[in-house]
Write a structure and sequence with these properties.
Distance between the termini: 22 Å
Radius of gyration: 16 Å
Number of helices: 5
Largest sheet: 7 strands, mixed
Strand order of the largest sheet: 3-2-1-4-5-6-7
Number of strands: 7
Strand content: 15-25%
Length: 188
C-alpha cells in the first residue's frame, strides 16, 4: 500500500514507521509526508529519510498533494486537526489515540491532556487505540488496541512513555491487518 503520513510535530511515529518498513515488520511504503505546521521537525526527518515532504495549511492543500502520489492509506501520526479526506479516501484514514477508546477521547483529548486525565481518574490500565478516522474525533472502527498497566506512582509523563511504547507496536500491527484484510473489512 502507498501511504501518506500526516503529522503536526516531532515525527516520532514517522521514525517508528520508517524503522518498521525498513526491517520488514510493517508492510507498504511511505509515498509522502505532510505537516500542517510549516516548521514541524517531522518534515525535516521525512526529508532526511528521503520522503517527499510538504507543509499544507488546510485539507484542500493536503488533498491536492496526496492526489499527486497515488495514496491508498492515510496515517495520522500526531496530526492535531480534523482531517477531511477526498471521497476516494474517506474510509482509508487511520489514526492512533493514546487511550483505550471509548475512554479519554473526543475533541480536545490528545497528547498529555489524555495522560493527565488518566492519572487524575486513577485508572489502573490505559493504552492506545488504532482506529479508522471519520468526521467525529475518535469514533471510527477500531483496528488494534494495546493495554499498559498503570502504577499508582506513575506520573503523566511515565504514562505517556508506556503508552508510546505500546503505540510503536500497535500502529504497525494495525497497518499489517489493514493490508491483509482490506480496508472495507473494518467498516460496517
Amino acid at each position: 500500500m502507498k501511504m501518506a503520513v500526516l503529522l503536526s510535530g516531532s515525527g516520532r511515529t514517522l521514525d517508528n514507521f520508517h524503522e518498521r518498513i525498513a526491517d520488514g515488520t510493517m508492510p507498504g511504503s511511505i509515498a509522502v509526508v505532510v505537516a500542517n505546521v510549516p516548521d514541524a521537525l517531522g518534515l525535516t526527518k521525512a526529508r532526511n529519510y528521503g520522503y517527499p515532504a510538504f507543509h499544507a495549511a488546510d485539507n484542500a492543500a493536503i488533498n491536492a498533494i496526496l492526489a499527486e502520489y497515488g495514496v491508498e492509506l492515510v496515517l495520522l501520526a500526531g496530526y492535531l486537526k480534523l482531517y477531511q479526506p477526498p471521497a476516494h479516501l474517506t474510509r482509508a484514514v487511520l489514526n492512533i489515540h493514546p487511550s483505550l477508546i471509548p475512554s479519554f477521547c473526543g475533541a480536545g483529548m490528545y497528547g498529555m491532556r489524555v495522560h493527565r486525565a488518566v492519572k487524575a481518574r486513577g485508572v489502573k490500565v490505559s493504552g492506545c487505540t488504532v482506529h479508522f478516522a471519520n468526521e467525529v474525533y475518535d469514533e471510527g472502527p477500531i483496528v488494534v488496541q494495546k493495554c499498559v498497566a498503570i502504577d499508582d506512582a506513575d506520573t503523566p509523563e511515565d504514562i505517556a512513555h508506556k503508552v508510546f511504547a505500546a503505540e510503536c507496536e500497535a500502529y504497525p500491527e494495525a497497518v499489517a491487518r489493514v493490508a491483509a484484510r482490506g480496508i472495507d473489512s473494518f467498516w460496517p
